């Protein structure tokens, strides 16, 4: 939890890691005055130099495939030809912003046989997401995530999403949230204790710095919270590496691989048995599914079916199992399908922890760059929480902390991209620097909506 972490250490900071996967922290040996400093973790320059030639070959091959396979231009829509290294050298949304400055708010981006229309304009985004929502589905996103999440909330089509959201939403009631605050606190204390031990141990090891991958630490924290809050299962990932957690990360790596690879070879019938990484992916899914199936089976065996109103009136502060799974299983009038439950729970497990960890990482990074804001945040935590533990009502009073999280979401939105696919021909508004008559796109066009560019560009918001 941000408030607990902020009240524990002092952060002063400078640069950002190139890949945004980790930050290095230095602390002085005296625990009472420990200062942690964010700084970049740069790779070996010689290694970077030696790999440049191979990258050029890779990029040339990419451009050749682009010219041969990605199709012609969409009318007079600008084209940004991406190099493969644009996907790996830095976060994609940085490259998308550069291309936005060069080509405007609507352009075609091609990587080998893959081509996308990139939208970086709130008016065009509204046209797709609101005014013509039924003319688009989730396209590539569903293609990549459906093998993992099935018909869960993220890859689901609109009708399935509406149905599942109506079922799940009542579970997030006030009594449940109040109970979850205690859970957030206990899980966060594990992370704080772990960092404290690292800082205390540093003084005796003779080292001048310690190194923490903040994204990994926050991912472990989020996984533990989701495990207990959603499944009533303690992964213990802050202190241990369980097979389930290793499998979760394995599926995420595979999803990332599929989103950037040229040819969907995994769709070939024998790939899951012949290709080593696909065999590992199937093994990872089996580990996660076995865990989730067991949790669902145990919950259903102890089912106490009742009405939604009575479920929401339970004393969640004293329940042995206050999880969302328990709520969904006990909800009367809902046909609890094991497969759909598995898909919903898998979605929360896989997607929920990653976005949470990213927001926390960026929030701490931003505070590290703004020491005066860090002090103000610490002062609010000390004033509101004192030496006691957070409660649901006290958290509502942490208004400055809330604004920090909201600003982190504005600057580094999660997810930074929304993905859609046109179900029929459409005419997109031209947007900034675009054709006043707009651009016609055919059915089957994949669209990237760059949320980070929409929210952060001064052209649209003047800040």
From TrEMBL:
Classification lineage: Eukaryota, Viridiplantae, Streptophyta, Embryophyta, Tracheophyta
Domain of life: Eukaryota
Protein family: Belongs to the cytochrome P450 family.
GO molecular function: heme binding; iron ion binding; monooxygenase activity; oxidoreductase activity, acting on paired donors, with incorporation or reduction of molecular oxygen
UniProt-recorded name of the protein: Cytochrome P450 family 97 protein
Region (Disordered): 26-56
Alphabetical list of PANTHER family matching this protein: CYTOCHROME P450 97B3, CHLOROPLASTIC, CYTOCHROME P450 FAMILY 4
């Amino acid at each position: 939890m941000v408030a607990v972490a902020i009240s524990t250490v002092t952060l002063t900071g400078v640069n950002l890691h190139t890949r945004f996967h980790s930050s290095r922290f230095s602390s002085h040996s005296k625990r009472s005055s420990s200062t942690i400093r964010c700084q970049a973790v740069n790779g070996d320059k010689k290694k970077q130099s030696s790999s440049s030639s191979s990258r050029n070959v890779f990029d040339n091959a990419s451009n050749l495939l682009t010219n041969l396979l990605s199709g012609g231009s969409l009318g007079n829509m600008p084209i940004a030809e991406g190099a493969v290294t644009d996907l790996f050298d830095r976060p994609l949304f940085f490259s998308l912003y550069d291309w936005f400055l060069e080509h405007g708010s609507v352009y075609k981006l091609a990587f080998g046989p893959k081509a996308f229309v990139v939208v970086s304009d709130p008016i065009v985004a509204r046209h797709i997401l609101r005014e013509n929502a039924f003319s688009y589905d989730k396209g590539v996103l569903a293609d990549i995530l459906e093998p993992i999440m099935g018909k869960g909330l993220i890859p689901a089509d609109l009708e399935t999403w509406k149905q599942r959201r109506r079922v799940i939403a009542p579970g997030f009631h006030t009594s449940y949230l109040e109970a979850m605050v205690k859970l957030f606190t206990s899980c966060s204390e594990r992370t704080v204790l772990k960092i404290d031990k690292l800082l205390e141990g540093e003084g005796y090891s003779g080292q001048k710095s310690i190194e923490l991958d903040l994204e990994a630490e926050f991912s472990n924290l989020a996984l533990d919270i989701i495990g207990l809050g959603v499944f009533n299962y303690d992964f213990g990932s802050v202190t241990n590496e369980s097979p389930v957690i290793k499998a979760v990360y394995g599926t995420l790596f595979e999803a990332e691989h599929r989103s950037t690879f040229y040819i969907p070879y995994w769709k070939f019938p024998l790939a899951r048995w012949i290709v080593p990484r696909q065999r590992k992916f199937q093994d990872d899914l089996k580990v996660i599914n076995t865990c989730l199936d067991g949790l669902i089976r145990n919950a259903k065996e102890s089912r106490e079916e009742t009405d939604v109103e009575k479920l929401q009136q339970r004393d969640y502060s004293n329940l042995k199992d206050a999880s969302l799974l328990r709520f969904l299983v006990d909800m009367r009038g809902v046909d609890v399908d094991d497969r759909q439950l598995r898909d919903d729970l898998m979605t929360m497990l896989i997607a929920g922890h990653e976005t949470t960890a990213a927001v926390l990482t960026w929030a701490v990074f931003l505070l590290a760059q703004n020491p005066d804001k860090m002090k103000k945040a610490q002062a609010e935590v000390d004033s509101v929480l004192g030496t006691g533990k957070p409660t649901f009502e006290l958290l509502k009073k942490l208004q400055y902390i809330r604004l920090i999280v909201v600003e982190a979401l504005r600057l580094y939105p999660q997810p930074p991209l929304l993905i859609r696919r046109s179900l029929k021909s459409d005419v997109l508004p031209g947007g900034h620097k675009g054709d006043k008559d707009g651009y016609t796109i055919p059915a089957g066009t994949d669209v990237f909506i760059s949320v980070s560019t929409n929210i952060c560009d001064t052209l649209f918001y003047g800040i």
